[in-house]
Amino acid sequence: MAGTVEFPVLVRLIGRGPRESAGVGCLLRYLPEDPFAVHLQFPGALTEDGEDAVWVFSRELLTRGAAGARVGDGDVRVLPGRPGRTYIQLRSGTGAALLEVETERLHEFVRASEDCVPPGAESGWLDWDAELTRLLYD
After folding, report:
1. Would you tell me how many other CB atoms lie within 10 Å of the CB of residue 81?
2. CATH superfamily of 5-137
3. What is the DSSP string of 17-67?
4. In whole angstroms, how far apart are CA 110 and each of 5, 7, 14, 28, 102?
5. What is the pTM of this model?
């Protein structure tokens, strides 16, 4: 079985006004057992409760967004940024954040995830019995 893909990434929070934020080290993770998704993990030092925060969204969304498309219509959107950069917009009931990430780093992550589980082969990696049990009983 293919292993987990983990890539540290530096993200910069884009704020309103003239303030520029420092980069924050985050982790992009791809799990073969969750083959349609990517996980973006923020360190607990950034959260009110001190726990790591993880956003989970579509690998296809990240792939298309890193390729220059404006994608997403829900809580996560990916769109082109300034040259060599991609924006990831995160929205929740409590706020929103616009993150800037180096596009090439996203491409490297996507390629590594595709080496792990090729596009179109994702459904073969799912444990359908476990997914059904989770849906029915969780």
Report:
1. 18
2. Sporulation-specific cell division protein SsgB (2.30.31.20)
3. SS-EEEEEEEEEEE-TTSTTEEEEEE-GGGSTTSS-EEEEEEHHHHHHHHT
4. 10, 10, 23, 10, 13
5. 0.83
Q: At residue 114, what are phi and psi to the nearest 5 degrees?
A: -70, -30
pLDDT of residue 122 exceeding 90, the answer is: no
pLDDT more than 70, % of the chain: 87
- Mean pLDDT computed over every residue of the chain: 87
Q: What sign results for the dihedral spanned by CA atoms 111, 58, 40, 3?
A: negative
pLDDT in tens, 102-116: 999 999 999 999 998
- Average pLDDT on 20-35 reads 88
